């Protein structure tokens, strides 16, 4: 089902070439970071406490779906501490030696950011335990019975790990973070704030009703809000006078196949398969993924978090189940066994 590929407009993953736009729009300081009030307050305490003591703060784990601001927050942590930021990622740390090189170059107080930390290779992960706990690594030299391990001091640093799948992290790794920030989807009012800020930076004439319309369709995700703003701006400039009003936003988003709830074709395909082919479930995620012709990780990490948050889909031990709201969204009447709103809906607020 090639035509059910996710509309790129609504993917929470960064697109190719989108990095430059993102860096322009990234908040630089905690005060500029919109939303996530709990995380912001907790982080402020962690950072101020550490600054007061003159020691690097505890290691921080940022967990949450793509596009909610984990990378931005890691940069903010370094900026707030006045420290240098070193950036790497789980997949880049294939061998323990790669990590050892990275660690031994750190200077005191540095912030080391490991993106996608759940994808770190096992030997590197084991080296990380000791580094996080004792600021020390054991470098093994040689092979077989002649191998010796040389202890290496490393400068006290702060590790910031980011993950879209905190469940995939091993217990020992998770336990070594002093502070875990669980990032939540943003409510529409917060996304409006993100949009107003971005419009100012980009010089877009964004009207209040236009911001409201785009925010409601951005799946609780700042990256998507910013992307839709750029698309709507193009439409406004080409087909109208440049002002982003509600009507312009609606017309533009219709072109991009983004519905009122921000669901795209893949989301609708998942719901439709769940309801029409599996009677509303329960059905396993891999079966569901095959039915829509997608990878199960895409369905699990990209579609589902938002469908759950929007109260459309429930994850149960026996599989995925469509809620009454999902049946209604497809214009069908739900059978009596369909769960009601299993999660707080973004749209009742
Ligand atoms: N709280 C926020 N306030 C303002 N803008 C934000 C906020 N969070 C994210 N953004 C915007 O969304 C974009 C994506 O954020 P970021 O790259 O930090 O997400 P991420 O969680 O690291 O995503 P991924 O999991 O794909 O790495 C940023 O460039 C920034 O413009
Ligand atoms: Mg990131």
From TrEMBL:
Native organism: Herbihabitans rhizosphaerae
Catalytic activity as recorded in UniProt: ATP + H2O = ADP + phosphate + H(+)
Subcellular locations according to the entry: Cytoplasm
InterPro entries: AAA+_ATPase, AAA_lid_4, DNA_helicase_Holl-junc_RuvB, P-loop_NTPase, RuvB-like_N, RuvB_wg_C, WH-like_DNA-bd_sf, WH_DNA-bd_sf
Cellular component, GO annotation: cytoplasm; Holliday junction resolvase complex
Name this protein carries in UniProt: Holliday junction branch migration complex subunit RuvB
Description of how the protein assembles with itself and partners: Homohexamer. Forms an RuvA(8)-RuvB(12)-Holliday junction (HJ) complex. HJ DNA is sandwiched between 2 RuvA tetramers; dsDNA enters through RuvA and exits via RuvB. An RuvB hexamer assembles on each DNA strand where it exits the tetramer. Each RuvB hexamer is contacted by two RuvA subunits (via domain III) on 2 adjacent RuvB subunits; this complex drives branch migration. In the full resolvosome a probable DNA-RuvA(4)-RuvB(12)-RuvC(2) complex forms which resolves the HJ.
GO terms classed as biological process: DNA recombination; DNA repair
């Amino acid at each position: 089902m090639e035509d059910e590929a996710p509309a790129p407009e609504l993917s929470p993953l960064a697109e190719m070439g989108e990095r430059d736009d993102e860096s322009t729009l990234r908040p630089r300081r905690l005060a500029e970071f919109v939303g996530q009030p709990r995380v912001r307050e907790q982080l402020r305490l962690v950072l101020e406490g550490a600054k007061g003591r003159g020691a690097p703060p505890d290691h921080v784990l940022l967990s949450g779906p793509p596009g909610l601001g984990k990378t931005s927050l890691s940069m903010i942590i370094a900026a707030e501490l006045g420290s240098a930021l070193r950036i790497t990622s789980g997949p880049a740390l294939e061998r323990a030696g790669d990590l050892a090189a990275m660690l031994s170059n750190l200077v005191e107080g540095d912030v080391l950011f490991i993106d996608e930390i759940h994808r770190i290779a096992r030997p590197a992960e084991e080296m990380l335990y000791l580094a996080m706990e004792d600021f020390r690594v054991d470098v093994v030299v040689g092979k077989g019975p002649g191998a010796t391990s040389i202890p290496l001091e490393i400068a006290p640093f702060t590790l910031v790990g980011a993950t879209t799948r905190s469940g995939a992290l091993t217990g020992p790794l998770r336990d070594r973070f002093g502070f875990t920030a669980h990032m939540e989807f943003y409510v529409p009012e917060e996304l409006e704030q993100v949009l107003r800020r971005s419009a100012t930076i980009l010089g877009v004439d964004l009207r209040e009703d236009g911001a409201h319309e785009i925010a409601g369709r951005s799946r609780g995700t700042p990256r998507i809000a910013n992307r839709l703003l750029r698309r709507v701006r193009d439409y406004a400039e080409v087909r109208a006078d440049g002002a982003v009003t509600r009507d312009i936003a609606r017309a533009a988003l219709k072109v991009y196949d983004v519905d009122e709830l921000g669901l795209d074709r893949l989301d609708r395909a998942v719901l439709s398969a769940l309801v029409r082919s599996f009677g509303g479930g329960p059905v396993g995620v891999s079966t569901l993924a095959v039915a829509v012709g997608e990878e199960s990780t895409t369905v699990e990490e990209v579609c589902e978090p938002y469908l759950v948050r929007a109260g459309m889909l429930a994850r149960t031990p026996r599989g995925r189940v469509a809620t009454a709201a999902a049946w209604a969204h497809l214009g069908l009447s739900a059978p009596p066994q369909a769960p009601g709103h299993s999660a707080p809906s973004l749209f009742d607020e």
